[in-house]
Amino acid sequence: MPTPTPASPVEGRTAPLLEPCETHASYTITIQQPGDSSPLPPATANEHQVGGDHYQGRAMQPWDIIEAWGLDFFEGSVLGYLLRRKPGVKRVDDLRKARHYLDKCIERELKRDQASY
Question: Is residue 15 in some structural domain?
Answer without folding.
Answer: yes
